[in-house]
User: What shape does this take?
Amino acid sequence: MSRKFFYKYSFLLVVCLCLVGCKGQLVDEYCNHTASFRFDFQYGHTQSYLYAALNSSDYFVFVSTNPIDGGFDLITEAYGNKEINVEHVTEAVLTKNGRALGLNNGLIVGRSSLQNGELYVFDRQCPNCFNETSQKKYALKFQNSANVICDRCKRVYGLLNGGVVVADEIGHDVNEKLFRYRATYSGTYLQVANQ
Assistant: This one.
C-alpha cells in the first residue's frame, strides 16, 4: 500500500469519525424542526431589541410575531428590560414566504462572546419537555442574561455555550441542549431558514 493511498484513507477515516457521535449517529448542531423568518432592517427598526442582539455580544432576546390588521407585531423581550418591545411591521419587512418561529412562535436570538461572537438562534421551546411530552407549550424564561429556565422541568440552559444544560435541579437522565436553527445576518437582514 502506497503512502499516498494510506494518508488519503486515514484522512477520510478521521473525517468520518469527527462526523459520527459516540452512539454512531451523525452529529448535527442544528435541529430539523421548521423555522422560517426574515426580518429586514432597511426599513428602520434599528432601535429594537432584536437589532441590539444581532450587533452586540452576550445580549439575547426572545422574538415572536402576532398577526394584526395590515401586518404583524414583532414582539421582542430582553432580560433586564421591564418593557416588552412591540413594533408594527408590514409584510415588506417580514418574509412573504411564511413565518415559522420555532415550535411555539418563539425564538431566542443573540451572539456569544465565548464563541467569538457566533450568532445563535434557538427555539424558545424547552427541548427536553417537548421530547418527553410532544407538547409545544413549555416556553423558556430568562433566568439571567446568560441563561434560560423551564418552569416545568427546572432545567437551566446556557445561551453563551451553545444551549447546553448548565443546571438540572431534579437530576434527569437525559439533558438535550436547546434546539438550534440555521441563521445568517447580513447587517441589513436576519434570515432564519431551517427547512
User: Anything to note?
Assistant: Confidence is low (pLDDT under 50) at residues 11-26. The chain is about 15% helix and 30% strand. The two ends are 44 Å apart (CA to CA).
